[in-house]
Model the fold of this input.
Amino acid sequence: MPAQLNVGLLGAALVAQCLSWLALSAQGGIGFAGALAGVLLTPLLWSLIHEAIHGHLYRQPACSRRGGRLLAVGFGAPFAVLQAGHLFHHRFNRSALERTEVYDPRVTPAWQAAVAYYFRLLGGLYLAEWLSNFLVWLPRPWLRKGLAWASDGRPRQWDTHPLAAMVMAPRALHEARRDALAVLMVWGGVSLIAEPGWLAALLLGRGLWVSLFDNLYHYGAPLNDRLAAHDVRTLPWLQAGMLNFNLHHTHHCHPQLRWWELPGAADQQQVPGPTLRDALLQQLAGPRPYGSGEQSPERPARTE
Done:
């Protein structure tokens, strides 16, 4: 039954997305409702994409990927880019390459860390995902140089980045470009029928939601531990709408589990976590230098 439920959820999410786009063409309350519906649809869209990233959306891997690509068009970014970014997160979580709120004061001034952190937190992440629709069209040598620059010029690190595999594999990059073209065509069509103000509200609201919720589950977690995350407590109806994505520590420990299997594993672990409100407020405290409660960056990483 849960596997069949994913089919219904995917169809419902796509229909709701299209209806919200149509509503954006109206003025007044209908346009507002369309923008609000598009924003509130964000956690379900991402959670279904997340299932596809791990190959859990359908039993057949090819069907799971196709479903993820279709959902990603409505989300606003190529599926391959979202997948590469998420797999990178699993591989390097809380390492020097993936500790969003932590900075080294010997290298980065506090004001610079704050500007970068709050920009990312308040919509910058979703903006980067949108920009990927254009960046994937750059020549492959330029993309390789960009990845090397993003890894501070350390080849061993950028070579292990899942994005590097996409850049180096022509078929994968071709898929990302086709998805990017679909995103630009679909959202370009939406922009022709939508009231500009309501479309902007939808994109700004979705960007804020995506960016705020991305690192919420890891803020203040131990460093150099790729399993470190929080199982965030929230209302049952909201947890259902997020497909249990708030059980993030459980997901990191058991990425092979599907969304409906996470609550049982979380109950067995009995790992206490903050409430959703507390987790949101905590990360608004801003970036944290070494020595502000995190474990030493020299601590060996867990490998289990």
In short: The chain has one domain: 2-289.
